[in-house]
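Researcher: Following up on the earlier apo prediction. This time include the ligand. It's NAP, with the SMILES given after the sequence.
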Amino acid sequence: AGVTRVVASMEDPNPLVAGKGMALLRKQGVSVASGLLQAESEKLNPGFIKRMKTGMPWVRCKLAMSLDGRTAMASGESVWITGEDARRDVQRLRARSSAVVTGIGTVLADDPSMNVRLTPEELPGVESSAYFRQPLRVVLDSSLRVPENARLFPVEGSVQVIHSRGDDAKARRLREAGADVLKLEGGLDLPRVMGELAEQEINEVLIEAGPTLAGAALKAGVIDELIIYMAPHLMGHQARGLFHLPGLEKMADRIDLRIQDIRPVGRDFRISATVAGE
Ligand SMILES: NC(=O)c1ccc[n+]([C@@H]2O[C@H](COP(=O)([O-])OP(=O)(O)OC[C@H]3O[C@@H](n4cnc5c(N)ncnc54)[C@H](OP(=O)(O)O)[C@@H]3O)[C@@H](O)[C@H]2O)c1
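Model: Understood. Below is the ligand-bound prediction.
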């Protein structure tokens, strides 16, 4: 084609591919440079890059809270904390994720379907439904308490239930309801669960769970990014907090965060933060 110079922003981190295309071009006498706007380009694709480099997916944990940091009333009621715009924003976060992970506590309390309910026209960069795939929905449920008639199952897209000590008959019934059931012997250790998802070529994971699983994921160090939607109301001291972090009692034990971005989304605010020191 007569091209004499190619400028790339980064090398493909996939070891099977890395640098091969560039080497081929150079061999043909084309001048090749790489690294232009590399940091910006890496931000577009954090999941694939992390999985290629570490064998783990990029994990976001999304939570909705009141201005006083509460995520559900003492009764468990939590629908809806944020407004319509924030919920639409969450739909877009789901749509860009390869998997959405929740805990059995949320399934039993809210019976969510956890699918993407936007049309292709409402999803940036998606030209038609042919280019869109529902994320895998994953329930972490050690003893297979998820009901076969949960709203997760009948909607379009795949559901995987990961357990460690559920009985075989229940596993069979869940398979009949359409779920893929995966048993991890020895317990649902979260780094291992994330490693399993990476094995399934899951690049970006969105955890949408209650304080038990969100706290355990924070403690296990599997979260790369916290995305917190803050609504302008107060839920009071009896309502439940964001993360269960047993053993955190002293100021010295606080988990430091680095806020990366804050922006209004309708009447709410979206805060993106990373765990400091990671
Ligand atoms: N505001 C929000 O953003 C938001 C989002 C989601 C839910 N919620 C609310 O949160 C409440 C439910 O919270 P929750 O804390 O009870 O439920 P959860 O965090 O969704 O699920 C917790 C359960 O997950 C299971 N699990 C499996 N593997 C685990 C692991 N490695 N670490 C920790 N847990 C693991 C455990 O049950 P087993 O041991 O039996 O497997 C555990 O009890 C509901 O009221 C819901 O409305 C709020």
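Model: Residues 84-96 form the longest helix (13 residues).
Researcher: Noted. I'll compare it with the apo version next.
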